[in-house]
Design brief:
Strand content: under 5%
Low-confidence stretches: none
Structural class: mainly alpha
CATH class: Mainly Alpha
Number of helices: 5
CATH architecture: Alpha Horseshoe
Order of helices and strands: HHHHH
Shape: flat
Mean pLDDT: 92
CATH superfamily: Tetratricopeptide repeat domain
Length: about 90
């Protein structure tokens, strides 16, 4: 998260991918990759990773419905932003 705030996005992506590899039973890697792509203005990819995080959370009993809803709302927000960018461009 701090790497994203510091705009060290390549490093943030590498750390996120390592999280996915080292901790496949955790959602953090998916969520952080979504945040990296959002910071890069790659909203379509960000939406994909927020959806993957939602799917992960749905299949994991440790997550409540609110977390799933949050991931899905972020995915929708990224999708809307992508559509807006396309209509303006």
């Amino acid at each position: 998260m701090d790497l994203i705030k510091q705009n060290r996005l390549d490093e943030a992506e590498a750390v996120s991918r390592k999280l996915l590899t080292d901790y496949p039973d955790q959602v953090d890697g998916l969520n952080r990759l979504a945040m990296v792509y959002e910071a890069r203005e790659e909203k379509s990819k960000a939406a994909d990773y927020y959806r993957k995080a939602a799917d992960f959370a749905k299949s994991n009993p440790d997550f409540d419905e609110q977390m799933v809803k949050w991931f899905l709302s972020e995915a929708r927000r990224m999708t809307k932003a992508t559509k807006k960018d396309m209509s303006e461009g």
